[in-house]
Amino acid sequence: MLKIKLKLMTFADVILILIILMGAIFSYEYMKKNRADLQAYIYYHNSLTGTYELAKAQIIRINDNCSAEIKAGKIRMLNSNCPDKRCVKQGWSDLVPIICLPNQIVIEVKSNTQKQNLHILH
User: Fold this and answer.
1) For the chain, how big is the Rg over CA atoms in Å?
2) Are 86 and 96 within 8 A, CB to CB?
3) Residue 25 falls within a domain, yes or no?
């Protein structure tokens, strides 16, 4: 018969658990703060057609045949008339650009702070 000895946690174990929990809480708050200022930049035929906050749920008409949807801090191509519909099949995104080559549509997600930092570098 196997005997398993249970050892009580030491003081160092408690400190390690507290440090990990604090790190997780700070990481969550940092990510939540950075997600609040995310914006979708929609380009049609290489021209910026609009900038939209990902915090506000909405449906955006890009042209007569294509539209995008923003919900819960993410964006997706809602519909498109392109043959493969890869842009629609890509689904929701908050980091990866959505590209529809036949319609020449590009949707990029950037933060306001990222945009401001790019202007400082130029």
Assistant:
1) 22
2) no
3) no
Q: Which domain range does residue 53 map to?
A: 38-121
CATH of the domain at 112: 2.60.320.10
Q: Which of 82, 107, 83, 111 is nearest to 97 (CA)?
A: 107
pLDDT tens across 92-114, in order? 998 899 999 999 999 999 887 65
CB 42 within 8 A of CB 68: yes
Looking at the domain assignment, is residue 117 inside a domain? yes
In a domain, 66, yes or no: yes
Nearest-angstrom CA–CA distance, 88 and 67: 10
pTM above the 0.70 mark? Answer: no
CA distance 10 to 24: 22
d(CA 74, CA 48): 19
pLDDT digits (tens, 9 = 90+) for 30-83: 666 556 678 999 999 999 999 999 989 999 999 999 999 999 889 999 999 999
